[in-house]
């Protein structure tokens, strides 16, 4: 009797033949840019309850810079690479919306060199054609009036170029803090009452929601702090519960 001595079993074949072929609608698992470990984990995750909206607190750039003996600009660049990688993962998992904080009002207390480095990397990130090709719809929120004119033009161009995309929404907080957002919301309501556009009896959670920078985006289902810190970092204080 002829014996087959060839052993074709491997984890990669297992992922392809068992996980993927039994669920052909999830064929993105064969993406060659992912290792088999990444593909396996993504496939397993996709069978659980997937949040529709995930927010990320991006923190720790200075610590990363010091630990790895690199400049802050290099640290920011690596951070935006991770944002892009995260978007790809979220697309594969079927997450519909991602929110990230790229800069806070407190960033303006840093040196001009560091501020310029951050803004340069934001611009570089937004120029990636692959974002548009992947169907990423980009929006921005925060105290945009504090930004330089050239930065505002970059944001406007990015929103205009991606507004028709519908694969995933990427909300980028820039020049943002939760306290500033709440203050702005209360000022809007106060002005509305002064101008007789609102009366005190109109005040409600719904009205406050509509006054937030993030409106009409829904609250995140999951908030992730990437630095290992267990703090909100003044991010989405009203939306997170």
UniProtKB/TrEMBL annotation:
UniProt cross-references to InterPro entries, sorted A to Z: UPP_synth-like, UPP_synth-like_sf
One GO CC term, this protein: dehydrodolichyl diphosphate synthase complex
Species name: Schizaphis graminum (Green bug aphid)
Name of this chain's protein: Alkyl transferase
A Pfam cross-reference name: Prenyltransf
Keyword set, alphabetical order: Transferase
Gene: DHDDS
Lineage top rank: taxon: Eukaryota
EC number: 2.5.1.-
Catalytic activity as recorded in UniProt: n isopentenyl diphosphate + (2E,6E)-farnesyl diphosphate = a di-trans,poly-cis-polyprenyl diphosphate + n diphosphate
UniProt GO molecular function: ditrans,polycis-polyprenyl diphosphate synthase [(2E,6E)-farnesyl diphosphate specific] activity
Assigned protein family: Belongs to the UPP synthase family.
EC category: transferase
Swiss-Prot/TrEMBL GO biological process terms: polyprenol biosynthetic process
């Amino acid at each position: 009797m002829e014996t087959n001595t060839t052993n074709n079993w491997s984890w990669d074949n297992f992922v392809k033949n068992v996980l993927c072929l039994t669920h052909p609608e999830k064929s993105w698992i064969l993406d060659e840019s992912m290792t088999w470990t990444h593909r396996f984990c993504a496939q397993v995750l996709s069978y659980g309850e997937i949040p529709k909206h995930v927010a990320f607190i991006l923190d720790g750039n200075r610590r990363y810079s010091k630990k790895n003996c690199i400049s802050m600009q290099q640290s920011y660049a690596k951070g935006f690479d991770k944002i892009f990688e995260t978007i790809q993962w979220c697309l594969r998992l079927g997450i519909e919306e991602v929110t990230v904080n790229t800069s806070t009002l407190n960033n303006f207390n840093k040196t001009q060199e560091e501020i310029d480095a951050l803004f340069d990397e934001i611009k570089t990130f937004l120029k990636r054609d692959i974002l548009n090709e992947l169907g990423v719809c980009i929006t921005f929120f925060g105290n945009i009036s504090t930004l330089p004119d050239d930065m505002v033009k970059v944001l406007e161009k990015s929103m205009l170029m991606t507004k028709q995309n519908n694969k995933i929404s990427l909300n980028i907080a820039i020049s943002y803090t939760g306290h500033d957002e709440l203050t702005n919301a209360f000022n809007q309501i106060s002005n509305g009452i002064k101008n007789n556009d609102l009366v005190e009896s109109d005040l409600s959670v719904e009205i406050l929601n509509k006054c937030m920078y993030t409106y009409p985006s829904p609250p995140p289902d999951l908030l992730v702090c990437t630095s290992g810190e267990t703090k909100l970092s003044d991010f989405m204080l009203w939306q997170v519960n």
